[in-house]
Amino acid sequence: MTAGRIIFLNGTSSSGKSSIARELLDILDDGVFFHLAVDGFNAMRTKRKLDPEQLDAALRRTRMGFHRSVAAMSEVGNDVVVDHVLSEPWRLLDCLAVLPPENVLFVGVHCPLDELTRRERARGDRPPGLAAHQYHLVHRHGDYDLECDTGTASPRACAERIRDFLPVRPSPTAFTRLRGRRPAQSQEPPGPGRDQIAAVPPRRRHG
């Protein structure tokens, strides 16, 4: 059985990842793609109020389960569009550990901070300042296969770039390169207060 392809969109809240994912499902016609979003997994969680320690543990388990669900979908041949926010270093490390790196097209979704703030305010369903908090965190690993900017291009235009790039994605992929730089990292997420790894010097790729 041939494993499915994974288009992995990473960016801050309100950067346009979900909009790009919806456009991709509309224009990709060489397979059957599924949009898996970390927000969708978070929405499935019980609404009972949890204390901070319980919530932190639940969120970590949710994200670990999300990563493994993506891997399982791909393993049995499904093509997947992933919508994620890699704002903690362990999230990327866990993805590198469980996803097949040669099948991942890693896409950085950028947007200017002032536009993120405007979108966040207009949406009204995100804590104020969330995108600003994530802004300098999500891209600090410094390596992608492809990058797009929703401040200057529409979600449709970004999706079309990704569609056109998918058949010619590089080898080795960004996930392969990033995994090679972290050979000794554990697959398990660190505990509270230990979410620190050295940032990789930025390497801009295709855009």
Report on the structure:
The structure is a single chain. The chain is an alpha/beta fold. Helix content is 42%, strand content 13%. It has a five-stranded parallel sheet with strand order 2-3-1-4-5, sandwiched between helices. Helix 1 (17-27) crosses helix 7 (155-165) and helix 3 runs parallel beside helix 4. The longest helix has 24 residues, at 52-75. The protein starts with 5 loop residues before the first strand and ends in a 27-residue tail after the last helix.
Summarize this, please?
With about 210 residues, this protein is α/β, with parallel strands linked by helices. Helices cover about 40% and strands about 15% of the residues. About 35% of the residues are buried.
Could you list some keywords that capture this structure?
single chain; 207 residues; alpha/beta; globular; disordered C terminus
> What string gives the helices and strands in order?
EHEHHEHEHHEHH
What's the helix count? 8
Strands, total number: 5
The value of Rg in angstroms is 16 Å
Low-confidence spans: 184-207
